[in-house]
From TrEMBL:
Domain of life according to the entry: Bacteria
Organism whose genome encodes this protein: Halomonas icarae
Domain ABC transmembrane type-1: 89-268
Subcellular location: Cell membrane
Alphabetized UniProt keyword annotations: Cell membrane, Membrane, Transmembrane, Transmembrane helix, Transport
One Pfam family named in its UniProt record: BPD_transp_1
SUPFAM superfamilies linked: MetI-like
Topological relation to the membrane, as annotated: Multi-pass membrane protein
One GO term describing the cellular component: ATP-binding cassette (ABC) transporter complex
Name of the protein in its database record: ABC transporter permease subunit
Keyword Cell membrane: yes
Chief localization: membrane
Amino acid sequence: MDIPRIPLGNWIEGSLEWLTSEYSMVTRGISRVTQTGIDGLNDALMWLPPWGLLLIIVGLCWWLANARLAIGAAAGMALIWNMDLWDPMIETLTLVVIATLVAVVIALPVGIAAALSERLYRVIMPVLDFMQTMPAFVYLIPAIPFFGIGSVSAIFATVIFSMPPAIRFTTLGIRQVPGELIEAADAYGATRGQKLIKVQLPLSLPTVMAGINQTIMLALSMVVIAAMIGADGLGSEVWRAIQRLRPGDGFEAGIAVVILAMLLDRLTQSLRKQRKS
């Protein structure tokens, strides 16, 4: 006996078509605003001469971390400049910064709400498991009908892909605050908002920063993959090298991605250590 096939794919396609037709004005508005932000930040970073931005990055590493990271950042950025990948690196950095900001702005309130509500926590954890196990390439599919080919679609897919760690770590950090401190705040008559702002969030900040660190790393990996749907940056250099069978160019772009990832990772870890101290 043949079992009827569930037309799940047809349902998903129909839902996407309905959403894109019904909310086209909204998606166009979001696309214009996002593209304006991308162009503005990209132009601002491009306006600075490479040596000027390099000095700013080195000074930031020295201030937030130590001289060793500053020296490593100087060497890594100089290598990217030497390989003529400075402009693609700036484009990648722009996409990562904007996607991370949007993801964190969405994730923090959701994570706080899930930490304070047991019912919401039980609902959102399976959703996060689903989002984190879904292959990264799948997130590129709904981005195209909503926003078309280009950097805006890359931002959309990157935000969805990179958001779960920030939500999960925010929830975890708040829920791990010792109960004795919560009871002490209650004894002093603190309201729910005061407990959140003055007790739970400050104590959970190192964990929240770890979640933001993971979000940045996932955003960087997704921005590289998003070159398949027209995103500019180092990912497009890798994709172009694959299409033209130029392994050397691909490895150079890959090395630049690794340098940028290490730099962002060390900077966020330094911020986390400062918050702990």
